[in-house]
Design goal:
Number of strands: 16
CATH superfamily of the largest domain: Metal-dependent hydrolases
Helix content: 25-40%
Distance between the termini: 48 Å
Largest sheet: 8 strands, mixed
Number of helices: 16
Bound molecules: zinc ion
GO molecular function, one term: hydrolase activity, acting on carbon-nitrogen (but not peptide) bonds, in cyclic amidines
Strand content: 15-25%
Structural class: alpha/beta
Number of domains: 2
Protein name: Cytosine deaminase protein-like protein
Radius of gyration: 23 Å
CATH topology of the largest domain: TIM Barrel
Length: about 475
């Protein structure tokens, strides 16, 4: 006879079992779609002759060859491991360089239906998100986070940097949910978890002691890939520098990437912290000590830079692995000076004119900081055509890269290039349906101008979304 649990009655055992059952993730996608593709046949490729179709072969999750398509071989389709490209455009998969997993869909989730926007300003966003955070529970963190990842995969995402907050209010609730989702989706999406201190590390009632204690514990977690903070929330400049010193030292000692929400203001008379950040990481000998990335998000103050400041920034960065992520939907919605000045990092110019590494990101989905938009990285690339006045083919391709290969590079993830090369990861998006006819997108620029909603996502040579 099996042992009965000591000190528990049948009802509490049932309750415990029901609880643990609810924690078991649904069947993995790879259990349902087990087959790896050996070839994607008859696709259009960026940078190659438009009138020619190509076959992309895959071995062990990587591109093994790219050959001219033989139309006669097509009669053997469909085959279980050969996907009919049907003359559609195959491009590298998409990436969220910066997305908040724990704060998503607060405006849609029924649990928070009483928290709706009345003013649409920064203070309201802070207040509403604070109220919502006080009610965060494992169930809704998992439900909302899972929805965000699932929708992202359907848009063509195979990698993301997901931010989860750590502070005295939420403790490790957001982090635990993030780590659970990372594991649940490990075969469909590479999820980097960024343990993130939105609150001050050195200001506030207790001088930030609790947040520092919690962040130190979070840094011990193996599943945490990135440590992040928000220096601009500190009370003064000295504390902002202490924030950067502390979090960069923590990242170095635990061999994690560093990601800062930096210089999120527009006023010209207020000086940006970016110069101090570069001095601090140089002082800590970042370059020699590890191969991890330093990523700086928002940085709206830099939009006031003149030519010489951009050039100086490039020189100061030198070989440091520093890159920038513009977050245009949030920046433009949230930031405005009394004179009506608005701004978001000019990523296309930063890349082409100043040789900086940059990408763009969604940041928030469905909350008071960014109520508009969805989980599709291409939607902001498309919006970038207007924001950055970047309609030329080359610029549109850069915008695609900013949510694909460049986005992966800024988070330290292996990239697949726009033109696809043998040996690269077989991480792709196939655009349009097989019956789209002449409306099928033929080039990267066309996808950026008018993103197709019908897509198939392939990660390491496996279909992750149909
Ligand atoms: Zn953010």
């Amino acid at each position: 006879m099996p042992d009965s649990p000591v000190g528990t009655d049948a009802a509490s055992v049932d309750k415990e079992m029901a609880k643990s059952r609810s924690r078991i993730p649904p069947p993995r996608h790879s259990d349902v779609y087990p087959s790896s593709l050996s070839k994607i046949a008859g696709v259009r490729l960026s940078g190659k002759e438009l009138s020619t179709a190509w076959d992309v072969s895959i071995v062990e999750g990587r591109i093994s060859s790219i050959d001219q398509h033989d139309p006669d071989a097509a009669v053997q389709l469909p085959s279980h491991d050969v996907l009919d490209g049907a003359n559609r455009l195959l491009a590298p998969s998409l990436c969220h360089a910066h997305i908040h997993l724990d704060k998503c869909f607060l405006l849609q989730d029924p649990k928070y239906s009483d928290l709706q926007m009345e003013n649409g300003d920064f203070q309201e966003a802070m207040d509403m998100t604070g109220k919502a955070k006080a009610r965060f529970g494992e169930d809704d963190l998992l439900r909302r986070g899972r929805q965000l990842i699932e929708e992202s995969i359907h848009h063509g995402v195979t990698a993301m940097r997901a931010f989860v907050e750590v502070d005295g209010h939420v403790q490790f609730k957001c982090l635990d949910a993030g780590l659970q989702l990372k594991e649940e989706f490990e075969h469909r999406c590479d999820i980097q978890i960024c343990a993130f201190a939105q609150l001050p590390l050195f200001s506030g009632n207790d001088g930030g002691e609790e947040v520092r204690k919690l962040m130190s514990a979070a840094a011990q977690e193996e599943g945490v890939d990135v440590l992040g903070s928000t220096p601009y929330v500190e009370a003064d400049e000295a504390k902002q520098k202490m924030n950067v010193c502390w979090i960069s030292t923590l990242a170095l000692s635990h061999a994690k990437h560093l990601d800062l929400h930096l210089d999120y203001f527009l006023e010209e008379h207020k000086q940006p912290l970016v110069w101090s950040v570069l001095d601090i990481v140089k002082d800590r000998n970042w370059l020699a000590r590890q191969g991890k990335q330093i990523t700086l998000g928002h940085c709206t103050r830099l939009t006031r830079f003149k030519d010489e400041e951009w050039s100086k920034l490039r020189q100061c960065i030198a070989d440091l692995p520093v890159s920038f992520v513009g977050l245009p939907t949030s920046d433009l919605f949230m930031m405005r000076t009394p004179e009506g000045h608005r701004g978001t990092l000019p990523v296309v110019d930063m890349i082409h004119r100043y040789g900086l590494d940059a990408a763009i990101g969604i940041n928030n989905v469905g909350n008071a900081f960014t109520p508009h938009g969805n989980c599709d990285p291409l939607s902001i690339a498309s919006m970038g055509v207007g924001i950055y006045h970047a309609g030329a083919k080359k610029d549109a391709e850069t915008l695609y890269e900013a949510v694909s290969s460049r986005a992966k590079a800024v988070i330290g993830h292996e990239s697949t290039s726009l033109g696809l090369k043998v040996g690269e990861l077989a991480d792709f998006v196939l655009f349009d349906g097989t019956k789209s006819g002449w409306r099928s997108r033929k080039s990267i620029a066309e996808v950026v101008y008018d993103p197709a909603t019908s897509r198939q996502t392939i990660r390491r040579g496996r279909m992750t979304a149909l």
